[in-house]
Here is the input.
Amino acid sequence: MPIFWQYGEKLVFSMRQPGRSRRPLATAAAAAFALAAFSAHLPGAAIARQEWRQKYDPIIQACARQFNVPADLIHSIIRAESDYDSRAISIKGAVGLMQLMAETATQYDVADRFDPAENIKGGVKYLKDLCKLFNGNTAKVLAAYNAGQEALKKFNGIPPYAETREYIRRVMASYSKPFISGGVPIQKFVDSSGQHVFTNDPYYHINSRKNRD
Here is the structure.
């Protein structure tokens, strides 16, 4: 299994070697980012990641509709947190796709943090609360998700932690909106019977279009 190690500020990729004493990365988010950077150039890596994204997209879309949190934002956070690895564990104890700590999981009724559906639902519920707390300010919501709400209170804004600021940059590279809007856009189309349909379920729209075609 490939592992990333940290020597001061330097990231090192290696295979597990028994008997070697090294300090693992502090967070799965940092490891996910390093793994993504390394694997981006491997044959089939992009295809595999797209398959993982598609695998979890129905769950993400459902949670986006239920809790009115943008699906694109959820995808961006999962990519940064775990790179779509549902078995990811950080050295601090965060687990799963959205890297939930035990206390957060308990607060949002997540019984099994390794279960993708439970993990995503709990993470999105937490995101929704953060959106309310920080008035949808994307950078502050992400900072709180990464460093905790207390860190923002302590510094009266985004904390000066290098990891947190890099985390915000990575997520906002694919979700660049300064403020977080509603979850899933409403789509209008005409179904096979000629009826006008309004829906926020993209899969209903896609399936209806297939049936119509």
Summary: Residues 1-26 have pLDDT under 50 and may be disordered.
